[in-house]
Design a protein that fits this description.
disordered N terminus; 15 strands; about 10% helix; about 270 residues
Length: about 270
């Protein structure tokens, strides 16, 4: 069940110690921009921190989404972005410690991923994987071997979050993207539904409410009723993610953003 929770947090989107974070609260920015204007969502050094509440647990997990760097990777000018989800508190102590880290390497010219890596730890079980994504030839090559044909607009988990932030957010204008995860392809519909003012732990924001649903690749996905709220300004910050799976409602709230130069992440093998 916690594996499903972690996957869902990153998909519909999913803390460092205070000595590393050095964050400041995000104040509401009311200078709105056109929601229909696609933009580059990458700002090197940006770190978004979230608390995850689940069922009766006030804080069941923590999520960070960050743009670590902008430089040359494998000969490609690109961005390195990371999404990390982990259980904390009673959930981690009573159930199972989960730490999932997704790294995506995004082509700065096309804003599409060309390489993705994943590191997972669920209790004592650990696993890692990677995939090379050739958008031009529409193929993906997992580290374990073989080649998978992919459609245009294919993203890994971390890259998908930034793709949604940069897309046209005109209400009623849906878009379909493809997610590659564990050598499987999932067709995802992104549907901007309305403009709403929402309040989270970091403050109050004018947002565009977006519904996300699996069109292909997972049964009964629409029952999760997932929504993502993205600020209707130049930053396009995901400030709230909600979902309603059968095992309890999930709420992911923005707590802070770090706009300064990126700090070195604690490697997952050194986490408790």
């Amino acid at each position: 069940m916690l594996r499903t929770l972690s996957f869902g947090l990153i998909l519909t989107a999913l803390s460092f110690p205070a000595s590393l974070a050095q964050t400041r609260p995000v104040s509401s920015d009311r200078s709105l921009v056109s929601a229909s204007a696609p933009r580059n969502p990458f700002v090197a050094g940006e770190r978004l921190s979230y608390d995850v509440s689940w069922a009766d647990f006030i804080v069941a997990g923590e999520l960070t989404i960050e743009t670590d760097d902008h430089r040359t990777f494998d000969g490609v000018d690109g961005y390195h972005v990371t999404a990390q989800a982990r259980t904390v508190g009673l959930v981690s102590g009573l159930a199972l410690k989960v730490l999932d880290v997704y790294d995506s390497f995004i082509n700065a010219a096309t804003l599409q991923p060309f390489r993705a890596e994943k590191r997972m730890r669920h209790g004592k079980k650990q696993a890692q994987s990677s995939v090379i994504i050739d958008q031009e030839h529409r193929t993906a090559r997992p580290a374990g071997g073989g080649t998978l044909e992919i459609p245009p607009d294919t993203y890994d988990l971390a890259g998908l979050i930034f793709a949604i932030r940069g897309m046209d957010l005109t209400v009623g204008k849906a878009r379909t993207l493809t997610l590659i995860e564990d050598e499987k392809l999932y067709t995802i519909k992104i549907q901007p539904e309305s403009r709403e003012r929402v309040t989270v732990r970091a403050g109050s924001y004018d947002t565009v409410k977006i519904a996300t649903s699996m069109m292909k690749g997972r049964e009964n996905d629409k029952l999760y009723n997932r929504r993502m709220y993205i600020t209707n300004d130049a930053r396009r910050l995901p400030v709230l993610i909600t979902a309603e799976p059968s095992w309890g409602s999930v709420r992911v709230e923005l707590t802070s953003v770090t706009p300064a130069e990126p700090q070195k992440r604690i490697d997952s093998k050194n986490q408790d």
